[in-house]
Write a structure and sequence with these properties.
By secondary structure, the chain is α/β, with parallel strands linked by helices. The chain has 2 domains: 164 residues, Thiamin diphosphate (ThDP)-binding fold, Pyr/PP domains (Rossmann fold, 3-Layer(aba) Sandwich), CATH 3.40.50.970; 167 residues, Rossmann fold (3-Layer(aba) Sandwich). It has 15 helices and 14 strands. It has a 6-stranded parallel sheet with strand order 2-1-3-4-6-5, with helices on both faces. Strands 8-7-9-10-14-13 form a 6-stranded parallel sheet. The longest helix is centred in the first third of the chain and has 13 residues. The N and C termini lie far apart (46 Å). 47% of the residues are buried.
């Protein structure tokens, strides 16, 4: 295991200036140290394609960025890699986690790339190198190789030692109602109804499984940023749909908002649970206090509840059965809940 603080100091000494990141739990200690360390700039990005484009702009401006993503996010970078980085000859370190998959696991979003990630990287015209987990100098040299060649560094689990966020970077959401209370209220309203709930990637789906056992749920294990578009498809087919999203998920593929905004007569409600953080990947601040979620949704064509909602009672009073609606809920966090099992995750038809 590498000493994370020493590794980041090594990056700084070698001239790296920015970490452009879409968080991953495998990289959370590296990310936390970058946030803690004032000598390297942490750049949180809405998607992996954004991270790669920002890094390209930095590199073309004589800075030395590093991109950190998870393996599923390498697919989001495909167009950027093949139509910008490769043809223009722009190189910088890209470090991706390599998520594993065991047969029968419900984290099915990792199943394909658990074996095929090197082939995907090769298809992009890159080589790959697995970051050394024991030799600090070797690991830093591998990052340097990725900086000057078309090589992607692969990060395995438990490569970095534990680093906690400094107090000034930790969020205190204790004054807010935890999301579970809102989910329980939705459950009481909609249990045994035909309304379809679609939960976005991560803790939202896990908590739906624990706190909404009698509603009609689809637990989207992967495809972050795509929950609203998936729900739009169901609504266009005539279903009543409520999408349960999150603040980091909201910004990843905002084209889903503008697409949905064309359809005023569908029965589609998008509830954004805003806990200000990437809870599933270490609880880092999403750094989106500048984002006007309600304003973006309204300008995209949604009927928007004008006030943010802070209680389950306010949420339930604001719900409407028909039309295209957006609700912004400020909430706290819950303790980790179990992942839904494979038999309830791996479905291919809405009921």
């Amino acid at each position: 295991m590498l000493d994370t603080k020493v590794f980041v100091e090594g990056l700084i000494q070698r001239g790296y200036t920015h970490l452009c990141v879409v968080p991953c739990s495998f990289a959370k200690n590296l990310i936390n140290e970058a946030i803690n360390n004032e000598s390297i700039e942490y750049v949180p990005c809405a998607s992996e394609a954004v991270a790669a484009s920002v890094a390209a702009g930095l590199k073309m401006s004589a800075k030395h960025p590093i991109v950190v993503v998870q393996s599923s996010g390498v697919t989001n970078m495909g167009s950027n890699i093949t139509s910008l980085l490769k043809p223009y000859g722009i190189t910088f370190p890209i470090i991706t986690s390599w998520r594993t998959y065991n047969e029968g696991d419900s984290e099915i979003q990792h199943q394909h790339l658990a074996t095929e990630l090197p082939k995907l990287i090769e298809a992009y015209g890159y080589e790959h190198t697995i970051l050394d987990q024991e030799d600090m100098v070797q690991a830093l040299d591998q990052v340097d190789r990725c900086d000057t060649t078309f090589t992607i560094g692969i990060l395995k689990k438990d490569t970095f030692s534990k680093v906690a966020l400094l107090k000034q970077h930790q969020l205190d959401l204790s004054a807010l109602t935890p999301r579970s209370a809102f989910l329980k209220a939705l459950h009481n309203l909609y249990k045994k109804s035909d309304t379809l709930f679609i939960g976005t990637t991560g803790n939202t789906s896990r908590e739906m499984y624990s706190f909404m056992p009698e509603t009609n749920n689809f637990y989207m294990a992967g495809n972050m940023g795509g929950a609203l578009s998936l729900g739009l498809g169901g609504a266009l087919a005539g279903k009543k749909v409520i999408v349960l999203g999150g603040d980091a998920e909201f910004v990843m593929h905002m084209g889903g908002l503008t697409t949905a905004g064309r359809y005023k007569d569908v029965a589609l409600t998008y509830i954004l649970f805003d806990n200000e953080q990437n809870k599933s990947t270490g609880g880092q601040n999403s750094y989106q206090s500048h984002v006007n979620y309600k304003g973006i949704a309204k300008s995209s064509g949604f009927n928007v509840v004008s006030e943010s909602l802070f209680t389950p009672e306010a949420l339930c009073k604001s719900l409407q059965e028909e039309g295209l609606h957006f609700l912004h809920v400020k909430c706290g966090v819950d303790d980790e809940t179990p992942r839904p099992p494979l038999d309830v995750v791996k479905v291919k038809e809405f009921v």
